[in-house]
Design a protein that fits this description.
With 554 residues, this protein is an alpha+beta fold. It has eleven helices and 28 strands. The strands form seven sheets. A six-stranded mixed β-sheet has the order 5-4-3-8-7-6, with helices on both faces. The chain has a five-stranded mixed β-sheet with strand order 10-11-9-13-12, with helices on both faces. The protein has a five-stranded antiparallel β-sheet with strand order 17-16-15-14-18. Strand 19 and strand 20 form a beta hairpin.
């Protein structure tokens, strides 16, 4: 094959240094062209960014504060936005250059292009150094100062326990409703949420109206007013009252109101609480939904709560054939727990031991109708209200016919043997920790409920244990909150004078009996664990990621 040479390349000498180059419009080599023309002129080589150390946000001029992680695209866009003169060149590449975190410096490498002289494009790489200035954003400034809130949401519920607020705390965490809260303070009958803007408080009120039956009322207080510009500064307060009806409460509806609610029997139990609460007649399985508008039009209170529940032993259960959803109507025979148990031996427990055989009604067998026909079996233990020995201060209950008032109202199945076992829970909860001296959206401790301490602390601990038991036994309630896996569970055992054992941070707080050899109690009876004890499945638990400032709830 014959070799054909290519066309000859004509070269000229650079006008400054004399280096042979390919001809161009400037007749200059690249080095001399860069020395002659600086395309980075007008772009500052040093700049600064403002950083809030409390909330870890950067200032995006003029007034916005954004959250950006180190060497992220958001932070790079913020740095480029602060540069002047970039609109005159073409930016082809930008990336961070690693620096020590404590140096308070950010280094960014830029590659730009610009047309110089005629039809000549010059590309140049250079670095820009940013100095990080520590400052405080307006939100953190108001948080650091005292009593600088703009809006307040007062949440109250007039009940003797805190389980509603423990559940409400988990709902707030799951839906992220606490992100705009400046601080949270516990008061006697509820919680106070403080906000820096009125719109944030209104958003919280709307959230509460969608998860619990409430009624709200708003007020405003004039702080200052400028008559020349016709502007005023107000503080806004929103009062949110939650209906005093909780799950598993015994409720006696006023007869006149019961007739308007599908003519349901006045004596009911509460089976579910949401934006409205559901009342169930255990004798007929008739249920009714009571929303906040109907309830607050003619409010009523509960006859008894979960602290008034009595333990019964199920002797016989016979379904009658009526069912509705998960409830099955059945006739049951029950007796007081321990009614047929002989108490012998010395009792070292400091609490009073009741001898049921010496009482008149101890060995009596009660016939009742229950909605737990699909759950209870002979030999099980159930919790219910013992109406025969109860004295209620209620005119509506006194108007009920004695023939239609049952002796016992069963509410739920109990697991006393499992509660006596020293077993840790494989899950845990989060808690809100926004009080004075704490940073972040969540923190350690029990949360905002139970921080007042004092003589009510023991009562709050008992309410927290009952709340955890409700989560274990009710799958529908577990679906409304987030449960997290426990990686390492270390049990810390300790006893007080009443032989109450607290099983560590995630253990069950139970009362124990003295056990004899071979797993028997001191009275010689064997304790078998209930086989149908509700277990929380692994598919219901979330991984415990330490993001932001999330801490564990004690």
């Amino acid at each position: 094959m014959e070799f054909i040479p290519g066309p000859a390349v004509t070269r000229v000498l650079c006008a400054d240094c004399g280096t042979p180059i390919v001809p161009n419009s400037a007749n200059l080599c690249v080095a001399c062209l860069r020395n002659t023309v600086d395309i980075t002129e007008g772009i500052p080589k040093q700049s600064s960014v403002s950083f809030c150390r409390n909330c870890e946000r950067f200032l995006s001029p003029p007034q916005a504060w954004i959250l950006a992680r180190p060497e992220s695209q958001e932070l790079l866009a913020l740095c480029l936005k602060r540069l002047k003169g970039l609109n005159k060149v073409r930016l082809t590449e930008a990336h961070f250059i690693w620096t020590e975190p404590h140096s308070r410096r950010l280094r960014v490498s830029l590659t730009i292009q610009k047309e110089v002289l005629a039809s000549t494009i010059l590309e140049q790489v250079f670095e820009i150094e940013y100095l990080v200035h520590n400052t405080q954003c307006p939100d953190c400034t108001r948080l650091a100062a005292k009593n600088t809130w703009k809006a307040l949401v007062q949440v109250r519920q007039k009940v003797a326990h805190k389980r509603t607020f423990l559940f409400l705390e988990q709902l707030i965490l799951k839906h992220g409703a606490q992100k705009d809260t400046v601080s949270v303070k516990e008061v006697r009958d509820g919680l106070d949420f403080f906000y820096s803007q009125r719109s944030h408080a209104i958003k919280m009120v709307e959230f509460l109206s969608g998860v619990v039956p409430v009624r709200t009322k708003g007020s405003e207080q004039l702080l200052s007013m400028d008559t020349h510009s016709n502007t005023a500064n107000y503080k806004f307060t929103y009062s949110v009252e939650i209906a005093p009806i909780c799950k598993d409460d015994l409720v006696c509806i006023p007869p006149k109101q019961a007739r308007t609610l599908s003519n349901i029997s006045p004596l009911t139990i509460c089976t579910r609480v949401g934006a409205s609460f559901q009342l169930l007649d255990v004798n007929t399985l008739q249920s009714v939904e009571v929303n906040s508008q109907i309830f607050w039009r003619s409010p009523f209170s509960a006859l008894a709560g979960v602290t008034d529940l009595v333990e019964f032993t199920v002797l016989d259960v016979e379904p009658v054939g009526t069912s509705r959803g998960r409830w099955v109507l059945a006739d049951a025979q029950v007796a007081l727990a321990g009614a047929f148990r002989s108490h012998t031996g010395n009792h070292t427990n400091s609490e009073t031991v009741v001898d049921y055989e010496t009482t008149a009604e101890s060995t009596q067998i009660f016939h009742t109708r229950t909605h737990l026909g699909a759950i209870l079996q002979p030999g099980d233990t159930a919790m219910g209200y013992y109406l025969t020995s109860s004295n209620f201060n209620s005119d509506d209950f006194a108007k009920l016919s004695p023939d239609r008032t049952p002796d016992v109202v069963l509410v739920k199945k109990a697991y006393p043997n499992r509660r006596k076992k020293n077993k840790a829970r494989p899950w845990k909860l989060r808690s809100i920790a926004k009080e004075e001296g704490e940073e972040g959206e969540t923190g350690g401790g029990r949360g905002v409920v139970g921080r007042m301490g004092g003589r009510d602390q023991k009562k709050v601990d008992e309410d927290y244990e009952l709340f955890l038991r409700d989560l274990e036994e009710d799958p529908e309630l577990r679906g409304a909150v987030n449960l997290y896996k426990v990686q390492d569970v270390k049990m810390k055992e300790g006893r007080d004078g009443n032989q109450r054992r607290r099983n560590g941070q995630y253990g069950m707080d139970v009362d124990e009996e003295e056990h004899g050899p071979e797993g028997t109690t001191m009275n010689g009876e064997e304790e078998e664990e209930e086989p149908d004890f509700p277990e929380v499945g692994l598919d219901e638990l979330l991984e415990d990621f330490d993001e932001m400032t999330l801490q564990e709830a004690a």
